[in-house]
Amino acid sequence: MNQSAAPAPPGRTTEDQQDFRDITDGRLIGIDAGTKTLGLALSDVRRTIASPLETIRRTKFTADATRLLSLAAEHNVAGLVLGLPRNLDGTEGPRAQATRALARNLNKLSPLPILLWDERLTTAEAQRMLIDADQTRKRRAEVIDKLAATIILQSALDRLNNKA
Known about the structure:
Layout: E1 13-14, H1 17-23, E2 27-33, E3 37-43, E4 50-57, H2 61-74, E5 77-84, H3 94-109, E6 114-118, H4 122-132, H5 137-160
Parallel strand pairs: 1-6, 2-5, 5-6
Antiparallel strand pairs: 2-3, 3-4
Helix pairs in contact: 4-5
């Protein structure tokens, strides 16, 4: 029998902020998962400030996950904050189901815990910020996903640090 490296233990997904706070210590990556892109943001080591990191153009899950987990390893990330797109009334539609499936699939590949974070209106907020900053439509399209991920992550950081 081949005695190669044991597979990574499965990760965990939660919506419980206290549970997530208890099982993670270190930097976090925030994710805005769209159908065409994954917008990524990175926290500082002290978990106070979120900054835009990268936008991954989605192709196949394996390639997308490899890039995401490579960035997580490169930045010594302790957990992921994945935006959960709920409807305005709090219900979940097809996009939320796809996001939960993404979390389940990432859990199979990585032991990193995942916090599902309500992302209602974050893309609209990001769009308003870019318009207020007088960004061109082309420039907004280039950075909207990273900015939405930054808003998601900053919101989570504030709550995890009891600031919100």
